Amino acid sequence: MNAQNTQTTQTTQTIDIPERFRQLGVRHGFNPDDPDSLNLLIEALPGAGKTTFLMGIPDCLVLDFECAANNVIAPRAAYVPIPTWKKYEEVKKELLEYSPVKLAGSKPPFKHIGFDTIDQFLYLLDQHLCEEINAARAQRADTRLLTTIKEYGSEGAGYVKLAEGMLRELHEFLQAGYTLKMTAHMKVRRQVVGDEVIEEKGSLAPPSIMQPLVRIVDVKARLYRHIEDKYAIEEKEVVKEDGTRTKVRVTASKPTTVVSHYLGIFPQSAADAADNDTKRRIPEMKVLIGIPLVHGYDAFKKAYMEAVEKAKQLESQAISSKE
Fold first, then answer.
1. Domains of the chain: which residue ranges?
2. Which fold has domain 33-225+260-322?
3. pLDDT tens per residue across span 228-246
4. Which of 71, 150, 198, 252 has its CA 20 to 30 A from that of 244?
């Protein structure tokens, strides 16, 4: 979230804020963040377009942990393949050195950092934490070496350590003035209930990871890809038995495959709202946004700004009704 936004809308009632408090950043009114300053978390199943969405964000450097960004057409973002933790640390060092905070007053190389995906980043972090712990244990002649941080301690202590490490890394970028644009994998669990097969979609990362991650973002969304075969209706001229000609509408024999993409903003249902890993900054935001495959980020920004304008109208109506 952009803490520098200090403007107040014209529809809000005036509150007298002493100057010394204004200098501290105290403000009043409906002051929604610019869409570019939002920290985003986008979940999707494999192949739905997560990387393509990130690569459509201008002024963004995508940390390409999946090594797939080179396949995206018409990119607006830059990317760097991150196959190892060492490479990640090298890139992070440069990003922190040339960050928006350090280059205040001049244009930094990048304003946003993309994590594609947070799951692969967590894998590298897991291995890095294991190496640190194993090195310390080796010095004590402790032979209980870890292959994953999940083996550390008991009662979920390893997951806690992994979540803490993740937040520590992400907060470094946030404190340096970057906004985070992150993607995450989803999983599908199928279970048979009677004669029916029920599919449940959820985050690949466990709640111990996802819940603290959602707390530092402004918007959580899911990217969906819908594939449908559509049969065109064609007009054909036919000759009747009496020799007259007429036109009839017939269905094409071969379908056309149509692929559509949607961005679902959380919460999308009452069940979602009951969860503690949902996040939406503007209540009037559309639940489902149709987006193009290329540059879908533009459609998100447009929907966000439309929701802001609608919220301003509601605020104005609420204030007018009390006058």
1. 1-31, 33-225+260-322
2. Rossmann fold (3.40.50)
3. 776 677 777 777 777 787 8
4. 252
